[in-house]
Batch of 2 targets.
Target 1
Amino acid sequence: METNGIVINIKNLKKSFGSAEVLKDINLQLGLGETLVTLGKSGSGKSVMLKCIVGLIKPDSGTVEVLGRNISELSYEELQYKRKKIGFVFQSGALYDSMSVRQNLEFPLIRNSKLNSDEIDNRVEEVLNDVGLIDAIDKMPSELSGGMRKRIGVARTIILNPEIMLWDEPTTGLDPETTREISHLIVRMQEKYKVSSIVVTHDMICARIVSDRIAVLKDGSYIKTGTYSELEKTEDEFVRSFFEEV
Amino acid sequence: MEEYFPKSLNKILVEIWGLYNFSVRYFREVLKPPYEVKELLRQFFQIGNKSFGLVSITGFIIGFVLALQAIPTLEPFGATSLIPAMISIGIVREIGPVITGLICAGKIGSGIGAELGSMKVTEQIDAMEVSACNPFKFLAVTRVTAAALMIPLLIIYADTIAMLGGYLALNIIGDVSLTLFFSQIFDTLTYEDVIPATIKTFFFGFTIGIVGCYKGFNASRGTESVGIAANTSVVISSLMVIVWDMIAVQITNIIF
Ligand SMILES: Nc1ncnc2c1ncn2[C@@H]1O[C@H](COP(=O)(O)OP(=O)(O)OP(=O)(O)O)[C@@H](O)[C@H]1O
Ligand SMILES: [Mg+2]
């Protein structure tokens, strides 16, 4: 269904909130099986862009094509169908407070797959092993640390085997070791399931490990794209500022 | 001042339009499978359980006080035997539904508004949406249905407790047998009293549920919006309970 190996194609995307122009002119393409890292300062609209891709936020103008279809032209049912193929890892984790970890993970599975209850149990344990948190299976979200919540959020997203993963700052606020673990998880996902990913971050450890390509967002549009080693050598002050943090 | 008025009017109209659309979506989705039966039952239990104590106490006190107030007025005429009839009509037609409705608006409306508001603010509703689980179905349809069915039950229960309260009050001035008391009540009450009063409680329940869900789903960003969602849910649903009641009385008077 992809057009020429492009799974996400964003053209001239604009979005303002009130008088604040957050996204001015976003053009971005994500290739099949590619992991694209997006760098940008806090408040630059990275989360807004990801939410436009899954149709949580309606763009003011421009088009977002996912797997060959323009998101804003889909009916609610078609959009839901498309969303099954997209995994979204929320910056905040967004775990369901009133449900245990197990119920959190079962939630999308029960509603979107035809697995029986044994298969669901197995799948839940499998993804919890993937994120290294099998012991937390019967805990409530309020009993988990910030990093653990984040990893459960990741587990809940990969459980549906999406074709596209959108990671909103998957490693921010985690210690370096967990950061590496999550980063390697992103790489493993790519290798194991051939997913295509957009990873929003300002964490350069993560960016170095996962990126095939990096796109730098500034003032509402992309100013530079390239591989990690290309951008590392660039003269541009703004781009350099990310690398100097390491 | 001139600018202020149209703006607030505009806000009210936008609100009404939003609520209307939310209700339309409810009716479109309520009968469409798959059904969230487990969550519906959980909400039933939650709503009933959470308000049970409060409704019992207020129901009892209302009946008790109503009878107590009537005694000094009717006693000089030797008409205390009319009290069961009098309070039963007052309670069933008006006081039971409205007071219990208002209490449920406070207790259940704020609960739904706050819970869904915080789910919205912490992106849990968005998370359901993007994992292709319809949050409207799981969260709103279940809560509204539970409220629309449970609140009438709570009101019927409160009416009963209120009459027991009235019975106890009458026992203070003299012995009244419980069977006599209730047979007097059943002799008095007609379908015209009971049926319209019961029908309007479904509207109360539905309104309380739908306003709470609407406010929760539309909470804006930031934690203070949770409080705002809870608060406006109570204000709007209380107001609407009163408005429904007024409309119901008018319609009842026309029909009967
Ligand atoms: N739903 C919304 N309504 C109004 N304003 C919004 C909304 N979502 C985002 N914004 C605004 O858009 C801007 C960009 O927000 P966004 O969350 O995308 O930033 P970000 O790049 O993800 O930052 P961070 O790295 O801190 O997560 C912010 O100024 C924010 O206040
Ligand atoms: Mg963000």
Target 2
Amino acid sequence: MLAKMAWRNLWRQKRRTLITCGSVAFGVFLAFTLTGIAENSYFRLVDTGAMMGSGHVVFQPEGWDLHPSLDRTLADATALQREADADPRVRTTLVHIQGQAMFASGSKTAGGAFIALDPAREGPDVNLFLRCLKEGELFAEAGGDGAVVGERLAQRLGLRLGKKLVYTSTDKRGEIVSDVVRIRGIFRTGVAEVDASTVLLPIDRVRKTLGYAATEATTVSVLLRDQQDAPDVARLYREAQRGAGVAVLTWDEAAPDLAGLIAVDRGMNRLFQIFVGLLIAAGILNTILMSVLERQREFGVMMAVGMPPTRLVAMVLVESVFVAVVGLIAGIVATVPWYLYLATVGIDLTPMLGDGYNVGGVLMDPTLRLFLRPRHVLAVLAGVFGLTILAGLYPAIRAGLVQPVESIRLV
Amino acid sequence: MQDTIIELGGVTKTYQQGKLDVRAVDALDLKIRAGDFAVLCGPSGSGKTTVLNMMGLLDAPTRGTVTFEGRDVSGLSAAQRATVRRDRIGFIFQAYNLIPVLTAMENAEFIMDLQGVPRPERRVRVGQILTDVGLAGLEDRRPDELSGGQQQRVAIARAIAAGPAVVLADEPTANVDSETAATILDLMETLNRERGVTFVFSSHDSLVIERAGRVVRLRDGHLESDEARS
Ligand SMILES: Nc1ncnc2c1ncn2[C@@H]1O[C@H](COP(=O)(O)OP(=O)(O)OP(=O)(O)O)[C@@H](O)[C@H]1O
Ligand SMILES: [Mg+2]
């Protein structure tokens, strides 16, 4: 009877109830959209960062993150790669030598960074630079003399495809060494600093130059099928590598700036959503309270004939539960097509954001998309539901405080 | 001797109105006995509603005692008083007695639902009572689909459905025309005579007052007269 009364009470003021349910639904829609946009950008940011060389989980020589120099190495990077590749959560594992170098062509020189890689294992699907290749192609052999350079660096050094490039660095023993390669490709990420300083080199050739053994490297980057597995995967490897002089870092440990940026942004986003949620909740509180105040006499009669105040409170709470449920369902129904469209097709924002849109030096896809994990969906639903019930709490308590003698006098 | 259901002993009720104390009821002694068909009458402001509220455990006296079925109710908590009201007292108010979202049947069942009487049993008992009060066929109507007199009949059905010791009715006929008032009085009289339902009701209306078996006159919160008629 309680639920029946609560349900019918809602439809006494159809318009008002529909507006209230509508604001719950709007809250759901808004929260899904805001969370979806934010989570999508974090997701892309992390994956893109991972594809710029550091992976979701990275093996490094211990202390390398503080002093990245070419004399600290992983003695058997190939073994680490083999081990990681066996994990079904791993998409691919990339062995790199990363270091600083001077680049020269003719009389021009520029400082920069190189990433030495095995062309057989890399392509546009795992390496962002290759995805942004503008001219030429990736060198074919790990032992060959090819190189791929950023567009701005190429301009600075006057490089074109087929031209020679000299790179000079320090080898494993600290000696100055240099080598000549030929430009096979030019990439353009759109991020100026990256395009002005990055060179991709064939790994076996760099090993020879630096005096590394055939399995030696500075980093092994692990790309996961799902970035959220990074902590679990890293924990596993950390245990396996204990005492071996190998550090295992998750992407957020390897890129604390990026992780901090995401954490701050997520916090702000949540705060904003809670703020908007409270505004919507205040509107809901207002309408439920109005409906309670209008029914004082009715409540007085109910209490006079023996209804306990607790049941009255429960009835008004059940009314807000119904508002919440109807609003949530309407919100979900409204959000699903919107979500599906934005999750698959997206809206291209290139005209607004321009080329090379980046966050903290990480190139971003300028398409508006939504990305939600089940836990985000649950959090939004629980949050909206909770706020609606919270909004119903005060009116419900007010209903329980009705004094029969006084309210019956109000005809 | 009849059993006493409600006993007011030296009951005084004062209201604070600004700095002034308004004495709505003053040292009133009154007993309601099983089987009574009593009317409280008196001019407006004489204290009828206040007396009924105290008899119905809706309000507590400033001084004096209210004894309900032999029990002093001053020590009862609000929840205990609510239980006594639910189980032992039927209420009929002047107007807007009914819960607008419930049908006639559901309104009449309301108290039994609060008592936890199972639905099939409720339906049988209330169905019979609605027929007895002349509402057969109107069970599924909402209050706004019933006339004022029909609404009061539903209120009567609700009041008697759970078998209370006494039914308290504050001006039950004040909002209906005199013809309807007469039929409502007929119904209450029949229930009193045939089922032994005890009624205490208030009224200004001399046509109503002369139908009562006992007339309690109030004036300025005092008992003016208390006459039994047969
Ligand atoms: N809540 C209240 N606050 C102040 N004074 C009150 C209150 N309730 C009743 N009174 C006063 O107490 C007196 C008795 O009121 P009561 O309502 O019991 O009279 P009544 O006989 O029922 O009158 P009526 O025939 O108009 O219904 C009146 O003077 C009234 O003004
Ligand atoms: Mg009155």
